[in-house]
Amino acid sequence: MAEEIYSPGLEGVIAGETAISTVTGGLSYRGYSIEDLARNGTFEEVAYLLLYCDLPNAQQLDQLRKRLSDAAQVPQPILNAVRDIPRGSSAMDILRSASSMLAHWDPDVNDNSREANLRKSERLLAQLPVVMAARYRLANGKEPVMPKTGRSLAENCLYMLFESDPTPGHIKAMDVSLILYAEHEFNASTFAARVIVSTLSDLHSGIAGAIGALKGPLHGGANEKVTDVLRSVGKKENAEKWVRGALARKEKIMGFGHRVYKDGDPRAVYLKELCGQLAKETGHEDLEGMAAVIERIVWEEKKLPPNLDWPSARLYEYLGLPVELYTPLFVLSRVSGWGAHVIEQLDNNRLIRPRARYTGPQRREWKPLAQR
Ligand code: COA
């Protein structure tokens, strides 16, 4: 047997190959730097890049937008279920269930070909925002609002939630956050999706599993937990004492640190810039000031830089978004990356089945029930 190598949490382990993105030399999607994509692109162009391996030309982009518009029809039984699911259920659990239920109405459900998986990925990209917004409105005593044709996913998300037309600045901020959340190599949820489809299971199962993995506070759930930090600190004057106290108690400050980016998360840089702009527009300069102090103290004490979730939580607050939708918004975007990984895994599949180091008891004798 080959030499056994063990790395807790698979840290540093190369668990497969991918042509979709790399964190080496700063994050890039299919060769394009994240800064370039966020500053110049739109989420739809990025989703196309991830799924189809290259940027679209004008015609391909138009066609994608039309397909997404057509696919945004969510079957009525699913909207009924979204209405009936008990009140306390989280938006992440609703999306996980919806991605599973949507499979039953998907005409390609049993087709695992590349073409069918592209169609299924596009449908989920179009349908999940409708589900998320519908549930949010229903939970708040309002009827769902359907997306308008010819609008971007970012614009429609804001429109469906608030039933009013967002400003260009708000659309840009939402679009950039979707671009930055779209893809991130072998993170936990993507790896979960790849493990699932490596058994030759289907895309909807992979994405339902990925949503379950993303929900945890050490992964996607961190953007919601960042809000707890901001609320607990309360004001700039409290920041230094609060952070030093939390670190002395060995508490983790949500929104800081990263398994891969030990010198800083490149996604956080441009988003911080946008946050600053949006804070001015929406009168949230105080919160920006407080966040800057927290950043400085965490760096002084632990040399930990912020990750993407740190500015994201503030950006969403400035957009007037409810905290319970922060992680679901991450889902809407990451469906593009998950779809690309499912397709890549199946293009060159090998069952993902690692070994475990055994730490249980030595072999022992069976004891009849009466002797236990
Ligand atoms: N706040 C305080 N200390 C932190 C920290 C944080 N957010 N993140 C890491 N550390 C500390 C650890 O306690 C450890 O300190 P020690 O050496 O004194 O024991 C050291 O930094 C190394 O951290 P470690 O937990 O080994 O890093 P990791 O690679 O396992 O963890 C995360 C990566 C993301 C799980 C971790 O940084 C974390 O929990 N961050 C908060 C959650 C978050 O923002 N997640 C979103 C990720 S995009």
Keywords:
372 residues; Citrate Synthase, domain 1; Cytochrome p450-Terp, domain 2; 3 strands; binds coenzyme A
Radius of gyration, in angstroms, nearest whole number: 22 Å
The domain count comes to 2
CATH homologous superfamily assignment of the largest domain: Citrate Synthase, domain 1
Just name the CATH architecture of the largest domain.
Answer: Orthogonal Bundle
Q: Enumerate the strands of the largest sheet in spatial order, edge to edge or round the barrel.
A: 1-2-3
Helix content: 55-70%
- Gross geometry: globular
List strands and helices in order, with pairings.
Layout (H helix, E strand, L loop, with lengths): L20 E2 L5 E2 L2 E2 H7 L2 H10 L5 H14 L4 H9 L6 H15 L8 H26 L13 H10 L5 H14 L6 H10 L5 H12 L7 H12 L2 H13 L17 H17 L2 H18 L6 H10 L7 H22 L25
Antiparallel strand pairs: 1-2, 2-3
Bound molecules: coenzyme A.
Explain what you see.
The chain has 372 residues and is mostly helical. Helix content is 59%, strand content 2%. The protein folds into two domains: 19-215 and 328-347, Citrate Synthase, domain 1 (Orthogonal Bundle); 222-318, Orthogonal Bundle (Cytochrome p450-Terp, domain 2). Strands 1-2-3 form a three-stranded antiparallel beta sheet. α2 (43-52) runs parallel beside α16, α7 crosses α8 and α13 (266-282) packs parallel to α15 (309-318). The protein is globular, with a radius of gyration of 22 Å. The two termini are 37 Å apart. It binds coenzyme A.
